[in-house]
Amino acid sequence: MYNGPLMNADLERVIALQRLDSAAHDAQRKLAEEPERTKALDARLEAARQRVASAKEHLSGNQNARRGIEKDVAVHQGRLSKFREQAMAVKTNQEYHAVQKEIGYAQTEIKTLEDQILERMLEADELTALVKRSEKELADEQKAVDADRKAMHAEHGELQAALERISRERAALVDALDKQVLATFELVSKRRNGVAVAEARDGICTICHVRLRPQVFNNVRRNDQIIQCDSCQRILYFHAAPALATPAITHPQ
Ligand SMILES: [Zn+2]
How far is the CA of 217 from the centre of ligand 1 (A)? Predict the structure, then answer.
C-alpha cells in the first residue's frame, strides 16, 4: 500500500485521470464497433435487394410459365382448326364422330389451359404488387441506411475529437501528477483492465466488493492521501453524500 504525504490534489487528479481513461476506452470501443455496424448496414441493404430480386424472379417465372401455356393453347387451337376442316370433309358417320371426339378433346384442353392462364394472370397481379412493395421497402431501407451512415460518420468525428481532447487533458494531468502516484495508477490500470480507481462506500471497495479494515476506510473517508484497496490495489476515494457535497452557500460581505 502506498501512503504518501497529504495528496488531496493528486487524489483528485487520479480520479480525473480515471474518468478520462474510461471515457477514452468507451470512445475506442465505439470506434472499434464501426466496421461491424457498417457490415450490419450493408447486410440490411443486401437483404432488401435480395427481396426485390426474389420478387422479380417469381414474376418472371410466372410470365415464362404463362407464355409456355399460351404456346400450348396455340398448338391445341391449330389442331382444333385442322379437325374442323376434317369435319367438313368426312364421308361416314363413324368418321364424323371420331373427329367430333377430337374436337371435344382439344376444346377441353384449351379450356383447361385458359383457366391456368387466368390463374397465372391473377398470380402475376400479386407478384407485380410484391415487386412494387419490395422496391418501395428497398428505397426506404436505402434512406434509413444512408441516415445511419451519416449519423455514424458524424459520431466518428465526435469520437475522434473527444479522443484528442482527452489526450490533451490527460497529458496535462499526468504532468501535474506526482510521479510515484502516476506509476501506481498506471500499474494498477494495466493489471485491472484499465480501471485503477475505485469508490469506497459503506466500508466496501465498490469494484472488488471486499470490505476494508475500519481504520483504512476511515482514512479513505478523509480523501487526503493515496490509499489502495488491499484486495484489488485500486486507488480508493470516498464520495460524500450529495447533500454534504453541496458547496456551502457563501454570503457576500
Ligand atoms: Zn478493491
Answer: 12
Mean pLDDT of the chain: 92
Grid cell of 55 as nine digits: 420478387
Above 90 in pLDDT, residue 240?
Answer: no
Q: How many residues does the chain have?
A: 253
> How many angstroms does the Cα of residue 158 sit away from the middle of ligand 1?
33
What does 2-59 look like in DSSP terms, one character per residue? Answer: ---S--HHHHHHHHHHHHHHHHHHHHHHHHHHHHHHHHHHHHHHHHHHHHHHHHHHHH
Which single residue is written with the C-alpha cell 501528477?
A: 177
Between the CA of 244 and the centroid of ligand 1 the distance, in Å, is 25
**Does position 71 have pLDDT exceeding 80, yes or no?**
yes
Helix, coil or strand: residue 229: coil
CA of 204 to the centre of ligand 1 (A): 8
Cell 480508493, residue located: 236
Answer yes or no: pTM beyond 0.90.
Answer: no
CA atoms within 13 A on the CB side of 47: 9
Lowest mean pLDDT among 6-10, 57-61, 173-177, 199-203: 6-10
List the Cα angle 100/106/109 in 5-degree steps: 140
Q: Is the pLDDT of residue 4 over 50?
A: no
